[in-house]
Specification:
Length: 310
């Protein structure tokens, strides 16, 4: 009697030993009449009804692959779970307490009217990033950035790239087009810890011409990178593409009497005898997509003081 040994990896290395003469007895080939009977149409027969050494096909399959998972396939219950982005300081303690900081790999919008503290937040974020040893870029659509104010805020100028879009173009459309082109190049090149798109001095109707597809492209470009993308605007224009939306407002200016530098000026003091000592700024967290909780409105107030006021 001769024997044949067949090993199947699908059966975890189990060997099937059988006699070649007894193959017909182990797995007999039934005729059509035996399977379907006289006059009955052929029907599909499941493979699990045929016995195999060690059990049926379905039993062996379940036993073999019960601990096997398909590589690269994620469970549907885990699709909504995303890693939380790394948060870095904005340079303003009250702002960090409100938002947790600025998220890397995300788009953050800072919006507010004129004199609402947009530049204060911008300079604070730049100073904090350069102190961390990161390189920063500011795409200035209106050529409004003051280098002396930047240096006074503590920004390391040798780590700052300043792109002046308003120097060669007079109309808002040309400056906006230049800003978008530069933003594409900066995001594609990489290597920046903070990229600021300063649209604060552009008319809102011009800034709204940026299509949402452009903001979506920026969001995807900065995703999975350590870059903080910050858009400074008068009004929110990125829509759902931004992970954080912070709205700024000015409550009241702080004024000092020229003759009494340590006291706030009273109402009856003439304006020509007053100096601007600082501003009181309100910040509201209008939208946050960084957690799974519903977005809720929260606000803080902080003060920005001028250099001569200490």
């Amino acid at each position: 009697m001769s024997s044949a040994v067949v090993s199947a990896s699908a059966a975890r290395g189990r060997a099937f030993v059988f006699d070649e003469k007894d193959v017909a007895e182990v797995c007999p080939q039934p005729s059509g009449k035996e399977l379907f009977g006289e006059g009955r149409p052929p029907q599909r027969v499941a493979s699990s009804v045929f016995p195999v050494a060690g059990g049926t096909f379905s039993e062996i399959f379940r036993e073999t692959f019960k601990d096997t998972r398909l590589a690269g396939v994620m469970s549907a219950s885990r699709l909504a779970v995303r890693p939380e982005p790394e948060m870095v300081s904005s340079g303003i303690a009250a702002m960090d307490a409100l938002t947790g900081g600025l998220p890397r790999g995300c788009l953050t919008e800072i919006c507010g009217p004129a004199s609402s503290g947009r530049t204060t937040v911008l300079l604070s974020a730049l100073a904090a990033a350069t102190r961390r040893g990161e390189f920063c870029a500011v795409v200035d659509a209106s050529d409004a950035l003051d280098p002396q104010s930047v240096a006074a805020a503590g920004v390391e100028l040798d780590r700052l790239l300043w792109v002046r879009c308003g120097e060669s173009f007079s109309n808002a459309e040309s400056r906006l087009e230049q800003l978008l082109r530069v933003a594409d190049l900066l995001l594609e090149s990489g290597g920046f810890g903070l990229i600021v798109l300063d649209l604060g001095d552009l008319p809102p109707q011009a800034a709204r011409r940026i299509p949402l597809t452009t903001w979506f492209r920026y969001r995807r470009a900065v995703e999975h990178t350590p870059t903080v993308l910050l858009a400074v605007e008068r009004q929110s224009i990125a829509g759902s593409c931004s992970s954080l939306l912070i709205k700024l407002g000015l409550t009241k200016p702080g004024l000092l009497n020229l003759g009494m530098s340590e006291r706030l000026v009273q109402v009856d003091v003439p304006t020509h005898a007053q100096l601007l000592a600082g501003v009181e700024i309100t910040a509201e967290l209008a939208r946050s997509r960084l957690d799974r909780k519903p977005a809720r409105s929260a606000g803080i107030t902080f003060t920005s003081r001028t250099a001569w006021a200490g």
